[in-house]
Specification:
Shape: globular
Number of helices: 44
Number of domains: 5
Distance between the termini: 45 Å
Number of strands: 15
Largest sheet: 5 strands, parallel
Oligomer: single chain
Strand content: 5-15%
Radius of gyration: 33 Å
Length: 989
């Protein structure tokens, strides 16, 4: 039985049993309550029972609900007793199963109290239906939440607990416009907005110098098809779209050629020549539209898919199948170690659509008919401002549209690698591909799929479609690969020539030990060649091979832990920590291109205090080729040695892998080093990453080897600064922030995650980011407020009318959630406030947006930005350190976007009001970063910052005027959550 609360290791089983019993009891009584609520809601929609609750029949809504109050109250008490004790102070209660259930139980008790009161009131006797008392969205959310909690209890605690599939009400599509603009109530009206749908007019002067004008229609020329097509391709593409395919190892010479070569067999004394089943599948329809390639981890499935996708023999057979029709091919390689798009259905569909529309632009209107029409009518300015957010539903519709348009005139063959690396419902992705081949379209579509032999794929494909098990077919390929690799070594080649029988035995024994796992042979060969000694001959190679474990995980353990001493393991732990830190930061800001570190990024992150000093003291200078080569060589050597070949260094194009890097003296030629610096460091195979991340004990053991003072995020922040101070390209001063912005966003995100900083380097390095970018920035001398960070806070058109920003970088750092940096910077700036000149003080206008407003900008939703949700710790810090550069919650300022008067407190209230309207607040929210977080921020504003309880939020284009207390009451009436009731009570106190 897994722990259901944050109990310490010393807690006995009785405590866990109490927690388990409390959770089980709550789920049972809450499920019973839900079933009654669902039934009452359903009855309220009918003709026979709509008014029964008002008339007071034998089974009224009030009576039915009241029956649940006692059991639910008892379960609430039991759950309260199971909450984390003093030993669990660092664990948020909502992150535990008892804590999450306790929260939902509190909300349900509040629901019952409120509804019971309303049903007993006189107003409830006037034909109010149950739907009016308990909203449909609330009911649906409750059912979903109970389903999630029940499944978690079953999976993590008690697998004997029966998880019922609860019925959920149908939610009618919201009339709320999903494309509704951000709240900008006083923005200047767009041209023609007040006459939407009418022909735009242009005023023409009749006679020069005359004040008389006439109006003539403005006829916009339709946007050319080529521009619309290119725009759609640009929005479909993502930077990591081809990374995985490029990183898949190319097949060794003649490897997998058997798939296209006829085989000879003798039966009844007669020779028969037969074609491989896969080749036959490519050539015709007899075997069906889907072919499944499976195999052990490391057997070479991805390499085979790439081989097939690229091979001209594939196209020859597909042409034969098509019978004269053109054949369209596209492929995708799922990669669990890659970016979100590399392991998701959106990434799959975007990539396939991009490939198809790149080669056949004529199908773009069929894929996106509405978007195509819209883009044809947009001006260049409107098109540049348009942002598309691809949902799975949109992409599925587009892909179906393309298939419907393609199939009548072309045949289609898709190659999809790594279904087991898809991050989602594997049954759903299987159904997706099966459904593509249904009906008549199945005769024009072929799909080659690969995956590990997991049960979900075996059940779907093993007996339903033609397939092959790769490890059963690659003996000769591995034999040839090993023989050729050994021959690359001059001394071993001589031994093989003089001792052919021993050499033959060695190769056969190694291949047999590999048991179909190509990766094992590759790693074993690396180790055998590394340890080869000339004077001991082939016998030494055989001894090394015999000593190697047969399982991949055991092989990784030998290479990584047993073959390295403590100092070497510490260096390996640093490399591993840097890779993990980058994955975390890149995933947060959704920069899929930065998911893997480049060799140049590693080059400035591996050294210790020497580079720390350089980051804050060196000036910007272009790196010399010699220095750059030395840096890259050091990084590449350390990475390859400390991971014993378990990491690879890959070029972005087809220029080879790490073995192609030559760090000889290149004089001042930068082309080679620029190529080397841009190469990405990745795991050579999924099994390697799985071992580090999932094998019991590996992660803990690696963390224990990490130096105590090492912080990977601080190192990567430093790396960014040193890269900017040592550019490989010619230095250029300009004002194109977009060029630097991805790196800035990564650097400041790494800065937010810094934890170990005994030398207090974070503030100095964050300021160095500002200083370095400012050095590159081509400043406008006639604008005292000109600063690069200003353009990270909003568009240029707003700056022309907005209040001046006199501390833009500090505002940006606040927006990125750099709590410790902001705290230290406020104290430092306040200390020198009295020393500022009159001119400097004059620039410090009170109209600027204060830090508190930036700290609460993402109160209820990140809304798909690179910024974190508002942090209560940062808000508390700002409220406790109010000063001229950080005024309090009631400080008036001019809103950056609307030019209307605001205070940080009113801004918070507006965020809450807007979040309710937009559906950003969840019912029964058990996420520690959800309602509990923003409710804490509101409490801080009132209790710590003494926010004005009588404040009034002005009406806007979406909502009427409302008081601060009214906002809290509106939230409570909508969600009936305990946190919101507490906020209402706080406002009334």
């Amino acid at each position: 039985m897994a722990a259901v609360s944050s109990s310490s290791a010393g807690d006995d089983s009785a405590s866990a049993s109490v927690s388990s019993s409390a959770v089980c009891g709550f789920l049972q009584c809450a499920t019973a309550l839900y079933q009654d609520v669902f039934a009452l809601h359903h009855d309220a929609d009918g003709d026979d029972h709509g008014d029964d609750y008002a008339k007071g029949g034998p089974s009224t809504a009030g009576e039915r609900l009241a029956a649940h109050a006692g059991p639910l109250g008892d379960s609430l008490k039991a759950l309260k007793a199971a909450q984390p004790g003093p030993d669990g102070v660092d664990v948020h209660p909502l992150s535990t199963l008892p804590g999450a259930c306790f929260k939902v139980a509190q909300d349900l008790m509040l629901h019952l109290d409120i509804i019971s009161g309303q049903l007993q009131s006189k107003a409830a006797l006037d034909g109010i239906s149950f739907r009016d008392l308990w909203s449909l969205r609330d009911v649906a959310a409750l059912g979903t939440r109970l389903q999630e909690l029940s499944q978690k209890f079953h999976d993590d605690v008690d697998n004997t607990f029966e998880v019922r599939r609860l019925p959920l009400p149908d939610l009618t599509p919201s009339k709320h416009n999903k494309d509704e603009p951000e709240d900008r109530d006083a923005l200047p009206k767009e041209e023609g907005r007040e006459d939407k749908g009418k022909q735009k007019m242009r005023r023409i002067n009749i006679v020069p110098g005359d004040n008389k004008f006439i109006e003539v229609p403005v006829h916009h020329r339709p946007t050319p098809d080529s521009i619309v097509h290119d725009f759609i391709l640009d929005t479909l593409s993502y930077k990591s779209m081809h990374f995985r395919e490029q990183e898949v190892t190319r097949a060794h010479s003649k490897t997998f050629e058997w798939v296209f070569q006829p085989s000879t067999s003798t039966e009844a004394g007669k020779e028969e020549i037969s074609e491989h089943p896969f080749s036959m599948w490519l050539r015709g329809d007899a075997l069906g539209p889907i072919y499944w390639i499976t195999g052990k981890p490391g057997s070479g499935k991805s390499t085979l898919i790439r081989f097939l996708f690229d091979h001209e023999a594939t196209m020859e057979r597909l042409d034969s199948w098509a019978g004269g029709k053109p054949v369209l091919t596209a492929g995708f390689f799922f990669w669990t170690s890659g970016s979100r798009e590399q392991r998701s259905q959106t990434g799959l569909l975007r990539s396939l659509l991009h490939q198809i529309l790149s080669t056949h632009p004529e199908f773009a209107p069929a894929a996106f008919p509405d978007l195509w029409k819209k883009l044809k009518t947009l001006t260049t300015k409107e098109r540049v401002a348009l942002q598309l957010d691809w949902s799975v539903a949109d992409l599925l519709e587009a892909f179906q549209g393309v298939m419907d348009a393609v199939v009548p005139t072309m045949n289609v063959c898709l190659f999809i690698d790594g279904l087991d690396e898809f991050e989602g419902d594997h049954t759903a992705i299987i159904d997706f591909f099966k459904n593509l081949c249904l009906g008549e379209k199945g005769q024009s579509i072929k799909i080659c799929l690969s995956s590990r032999p997991w049960a979900v794929f075996q059940n779907a494909f093993e007996y339903a479609v033609p397939n092959l098990r790769l490890q059963d077919l690659t003996y000769d390929d591995m034999y040839r690969y090993m023989r050729d690799r050994l021959r690359q070594n001059t001394h071993i080649r001589r031994l093989l020539k003089h001792e052919p029988e021993a050499g033959e035995g060695l190769i056969k024994a190694t291949v047999e030990k590999a048991d179909g796992v190509f990766l094992w042979v590759r790693l074993a060969l690396n180790e055998m060649i590394r340890k080869f000694e000339q004077n001991t001959g082939l016998a030494s190679l055989s001894e090394v091979m015999q000593a190697l474990p047969t399982e991949l995980n055991d092989l990784f353990n030998l290479f990584f832990f047993e073959n390295q001493d403590q100092d070497e393991l510490a260096e390996a732990a640093i490399i591993f920590g840097l890779m993990n830190a980058r994955e975390l930061a890149a995933d947060f800001i959704q920069n899929d291109a930065a998911n893997a570190l480049t060799l140049w990024e590693f080059a400035f992150a591996l050294k210790g205090s020497e580079d720390d000093q350089a980051a804050v003291s060196e000036e910007v200078k272009q790196a010399s080729a010699t220095t750059a080569h030395e840096r890259c060589q050091m990084a590449a050597s350390l990475i390859m040695h400390r991971f014993s070949g378990l990491l690879g260094i890959h070029a972005r194009a087809e220029s080879g892998n790490a073995r192609g890097l030559r760090f000889a003296d290149k004089s001042e030629d930068m082309s080679e080093v620029v190529d080397a610096a841009a190469r990405r460091v990745t795991y050579i195979h999924r099994t390697v990453r799985d071992w580090f991340m999932e094998e019991p004990g590996v992660m803990d053991r690696l963390v224990s080897k990490t130096p105590a003072d090492f912080d990977p995020h601080l190192r990567l922040l430093r790396s960014y600064i040193l890269q900017m101070k040592n550019p490989l390209e010619e230095i250029e001063h300009h004002r194109q922030l977009d060029e630097w912005w991805p790196g800035i966003a990564l650097a400041l995100t790494h800065a937010r995650y810094v934890q170990k900083d005994a030398r207090h380097l974070q503030r100095a390095m964050v300021n160095e980011v500002d200083k370095t970018i400012s050095w590159y920035w081509l400043r406008k001398d006639d604008d005292p407020y000109d600063h690069w960070a200003r353009y990270g806070l909003g568009p240029y058109r707003i700056f022309t009318i907005a209040a001046p920003l006199w501390q833009p970088f500090l505002c940006l750092a606040t927006k990125f959630g750099l709590a410790r940096y902001v705290s230290e910077e406020i104290l430092a700036r306040s200390a020198v406030e009295g020393k500022l000149s009159d001119k400097e003080k004059e620039l410090q206008t009170a109209e600027s947006t204060p830090l508190l407003a930036y700290a609460t900008e993402f109160l209820c939703s990140r809304n798909k930005t690179i910024y974190p949700l508002s942090d209560p710790r940062l808000v508390a810090l700002l409220l406790n350190n109010q000063c001229r550069i950080n005024p309090g919650p009631n400080h008036p300022y001019t809103d950056f976007w609307t030019q209307q008067p605001r205070t940080p407190w009113i801004t918070v209230l507006r965020h809450l009001r807007d979040a309710r309207r937009r559906g950003w607040i969840e019912y029964y929210d058990v996420d520690p970063q959800g309602t509990a977080r923003w409710a804490e921020i509101v409490k801080l504003f009132v209790e710590l910052g003494h926010a004005d309880k009588k404040a009034v939020v002005a009406k806007d284009s979406w909502d009427p005027e409302i008081t601060a207390a009214g906002v809290m009451e509106l939230l409570e009436q909508t969600y009936w959550a305990v946190e919101m009731k507490e906020l209402v009570d706080l406002m009334r106190a």
